Amino acid sequence: MKIRIETEVEKDIETVWSAWTSPEDIVNWNAASPDWHTVSATNDLRTGGEFSYRMEAKDGSMGFDFGGKYTNVEEGRLLEILLGDDREMRVWFEESEKGTRVFEEFETEDQNPVEMQRQGWQNILDNFKAYVEAK
Q1: Pseudo-torsion of CA 79, 98, 117, 83, nearest 10°?
Q2: How far is the CA of 82 from the CAs of 51, 68, 107, in angstroms?
Q3: C-alpha span between 68 and 53 (Å, rounded)
């Protein structure tokens, strides 16, 4: 099953792309809830390149690495990804009247309810929007 989420960021596409792909920015927005954060990020932004984010509970009780490999990178427009658990994901960016629309589509995993996955990923996307618009 695939889930698709989206948001509209009131910034130009170059700013949005940079914030999505820059490790220095990723650690500031990549969290699904206020009690989690991303403590480190690496990103080799090219087809065949890999990325990895270390996500941890702020109370130190747990953490995990989230990563994957880019199967296609079209600068400023599209990221196609094979996640570390072999699920496929796409992120694409389109100019809009207000700025930039960001879309994500990903295959669900089997460990968490689908609606929980949708909400978690949407929360991260909402954090991204708030972060970029405040820059």
Answers
A1: 10
A2: 10, 6, 10
A3: 10
Q: Residue 120 corresponds to which amino acid?
A: G
Tokens of 76: 């400023």
Supply 71's token pair. 């199967």
What's the one-letter identity of residue 61? S
pTM of the entire predicted model: 0.95
**CA gap 66, 81 in Å, rounded:** 12
Give the dihedral sign, CA 54/58/63/68: negative
pLDDT tens for 10-40 read: 999 999 999 999 999 999 999 999 999 999 9
- Extract the tokens encoding 52: 């990895």
Q: Report yes or no: 5 and 122 within 8 Å, Cβ to Cβ.
A: yes
Sheet holding 88-95, edge to edge: 2-9, 100-107, 88-95, 78-83, 63-74, 50-57, 36-43
Answer for the pair 15, 29: CB distance below 8 angstroms, yes or no.
Answer: no
Which burial class, exposed, middle or buried, applies to 118 when counting CB atoms under 10 A from its CB (0-12, 13-18, 19+)? middle
